[in-house]
Design brief:
Elements lengths: L16 H15 L2 H5 L4 H9 L5 E4 L15 E3 L3 H9 L4 E2 L1 H6 L9 E7 L7 H11 L3 E12 L1 H5 L10 H10 L3 E8 L13 E7 L2
Parallel strand pairs: 1-2, 1-4, 2-3, 4-5
Antiparallel strand pairs: 5-7, 6-7
Helix pairs in contact: 1-4
């Protein structure tokens, strides 16, 4: 589901608690403004997540919880941005900062989750940091569990100045293979890939399986 998200390593494009809070406020404002407030624009993305049958999800880079609220009731979100985590919690979601997650032995124990979701995060990171982020959370996913990676297509990528790297199907496959995942499928959502040149909410989706 499209959402401006902050990666694990940086709280906001400029950094710092004040910037984190400002960034989170912008996310909430965008979510409640214009056509998004009047029409069920997120319905296709909710359906896409639910049809994947992800079970208990670890949502890394959860932001204010737009995806997390459509995951199983025992799912957990992680984000570096403390303001975003606070907003997600205020919505009744279970969310932690990266430091809180890592310090909790029950949360971070091996195989504690059925699936890992990393949506609209990788385009903010270098290849090396993407690999580090993915491999640091993979131990928390059970054997046979799913890993879902989602990135924006061309129009979406160019719509956000905080994006630093375009990650298409080739980039997603390379990352998944380097992390030792078995690729189950890749697909363009909600429209064919050609639409991604003009429709900024079109996404690349990869579903991988943990050995």
């Amino acid at each position: 589901m499209p959402e401006d998200r902050e990666p694990k390593q940086t709280g906001s494009p400029t950094g710092g608690a004040t910037a984190d809070a400002s960034y989170t406020e912008r996310l909430v404002t965008l979510e409640q403004s214009g056509i998004k407030r009047l029409l069920p624009t997120q319905a296709p993305y909710r359906w896409n997540l639910r049809r994947l049958n992800l079970g208990r999800v670890l949502d890394v880079g959860c932001g204010i919880g737009r995806n997390l609220q459509n995951c199983g009731p025992d799912s957990v979100g992680v984000d570096h941005n403390e303001a975003s985590v606070a907003t997600a919690r205020a919505r009744g979601l279970t969310a932690y900062t990266a430091a809180e997650f890592e310090a909790d032995p029950e949360l971070s124990r091996p195989g504690a989750f059925d699936s890992l979701l990393v949506a609209h995060v990788l385009e903010h990171l270098s290849p090396e940091t993407c690999k580090e982020l993915l491999t640091s959370y993979l131990p928390s996913i059970r054997s046979g569990g799913k890993v879902v990676l989602i990135t924006p297509q061309e129009a979406g990528y160019h719509s956000d100045p905080t994006h630093v790297r375009f990650v298409d199907f080739d980039g997603l496959r390379a990352l998944a293979e380097e992390a030792g995942l078995r690729i189950d499928r890749t697909y363009s959502f909600p429209l064919p890939e050609a639409a991604g040149k003009v429709f900024k909410y079109n996404e690349y989706v990869l579903v991988g399986l943990v050995p």
